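User:
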Amino acid sequence: MRQELVLGIGGVRVLRKLGLEPTVFHMNEGHSAFLQLERMRELVEEGGVDPGRALERLRSSSVFTTHTPVPAGNEIFDPALVERSVGTLVERLRYLVD
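Assistant: Predicted structure:
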């Protein structure tokens, strides 16, 4: 899960530091799914975008593909591990959205 956090959240941050502003984000499997949390955070927290509008922007600029549409090809994480790893980020987003 740490790898997926680094790829997703860290990947968005690296792109920004490099001055790159992709118009579409491609997620293959779930490996970079956490990038959506980071994108939502930056839109709402840093950009002041209304949460509903931010979700629309995420939907219109995201592509998801999979080549292993069976349970064995997808990782499942214990909810407690997810809470420990991204709970603070989710709580910040929840606070901003409410």
